[in-house]
Amino acid sequence: MIYLHLFLSFMKIGLFSFGGGYAMIPLIQKEIQSHGWLSASEFVDIIAIAEMTPGPIAVNSATFVGYKAAGILGGIVATAGVAIPSLVLILIVSNYFFKFQDHPLSKLIFYGVRPVIVGLIFAAAVFVAQTAFLRQGTTLSGSMLNLLSIIDLKSIFIFIIAIIGLVKFEIHPILIIVISSVLGLIFTML
């Protein structure tokens, strides 16, 4: 039964996700929470691993979640579930896209979809930021003093270093990941 749940859940994610892997993160999170397959912390770790490994983030996430929930076969089933809708849709859409790309209705649809994609990516960023910047097992509530006690300052420091490296010094993202990993190792040993 878990294989059917994995397949249907990830098929729903693959079918209703527009805007790429990052836009899928809120949908993946909802499905994982509703089935209790992973904790929030485990989910963020999987997103980090999926981002670092080759391939689309949605496929990698589906594979990891499926494997964690039901072993190797679960990973295969979840991956098939997320990939099949995209494959079928792209085969259908590619046949008609170039014929109708300049049609006023097509332009209106894309005009409406773009802001939603930005919103989905932003929602994913907020979720990951809460999990990354707050100490495990805490939530955003209470007074400002309480907030200061639950913030993980080491994670925020790594975030700031990464942003400065990417934006100001234009360091390659792979090097930023390596530097951040080293800083994480150093901070956990302190």
The average pLDDT is 85
The DSSP helix count reads 8
Specify the overall morphology: globular
Q: What's the end-to-end separation, in Å?
A: 45 Å
Largest sheet report: none
Question: How is this structure best summarized?
Answer:
The chain is mainly alpha-helical and 190 residues long. It has helices at 2-16, 21-35, 40-52, 57-100, 104-133, 144-150, 153-167, 173-189.
Describe it.
The protein has eight helices and no strands. It folds into two domains: 137 residues, no CATH class; 39 residues. 82% of the residues lie in helices and 0% in strands. It starts with a helix and ends with a helix. The relative contact order is 0.11. With 190 residues, the chain is an all-alpha fold.
Question: Which tags fit this structure?
Answer:
mainly alpha, 190 residues, globular, 8 helices
List the helices and strands and how they pair.
Blueprint: H1 2-16, H2 21-35, H3 40-52, H4 57-100, H5 104-133, H6 144-150, H7 153-167, H8 173-189
Helix pairs in contact: 1-2, 1-4, 2-4, 2-5, 3-4, 7-8
